[in-house]
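Structure first, sequence second, as always.
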């Protein structure tokens, strides 16, 4: 194992322990040894995003994508960094590139829909939100993420002028939460789930 790999592994362990700043320091040392270390670039981007530094995260993802232009996780993370910076049109491009490779990625579909909504393209956002929900239902079991997808779909419907459709989607989200809660047998856990 190279010194850079050892530093990356230690950085990952520090992140798992909740020490993001220390993890960032370690991965930066790994990149000082090997500036073209793809996995370290992506990891540094994740850490920068967690530390509230989306511009730094974006720089790391862009560097990683120069090495591997079609890397799915780097494209997705680049989109989220751009969204955090309010650069929705550019984030749209990242998600579109990702969806060319993985067209059924519910999270990417949802995030692309949010970007379209932010740029005034409500009808397109609505269609993508519906696709994201369909994919989430197909894989069954992404829990609260699926509810978040439904809320985004409701926002897109509302922005497109379909108030009744927005209410129906929100009712559907609440029904999903209730149905999941009904399957919880432990009363204390059920109460905390419904919070």
């Amino acid at each position: 194992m190279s010194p850079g790999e050892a530093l990356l592994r230690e950085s990952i362990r520090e992140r798992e322990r909740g020490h993001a700043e220390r993890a960032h320091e370690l991965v930066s040392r790994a990149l000082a040894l090997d500036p073209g270390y793809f996995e370290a670039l992506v990891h540094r981007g994740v850490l920068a995003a967690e530390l509230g530094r989306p511009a730094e995260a974006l720089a790391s993802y862009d560097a990683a994508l120069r090495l591997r232009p079609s890397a799915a996780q780097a494209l997705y993370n680049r989109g989220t960094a751009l969204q955090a910076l309010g650069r929705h049109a550019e984030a749209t491009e990242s998600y579109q590139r990702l969806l060319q490779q993985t067209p059924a990625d519910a999270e990417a579909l949802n995030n692309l829909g949010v970007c379209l909504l932010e740029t005034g393209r409500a009808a397109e956002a609505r269609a993508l939100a519906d696709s994201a929900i369909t994919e989430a239902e197909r894989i069954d079991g992404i829990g609260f993420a699926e509810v978040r997808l439904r809320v985004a779909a409701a926002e897109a419907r509302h922005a497109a002028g379909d108030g009744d459709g927005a209410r129906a989607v929100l009712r559907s989200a609440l029904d999903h939460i209730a149905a999941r809660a009904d399957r919880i047998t432990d009363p204390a856990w059920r109460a905390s789930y419904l919070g």
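Margin note: The chain has a mean pLDDT of 86.
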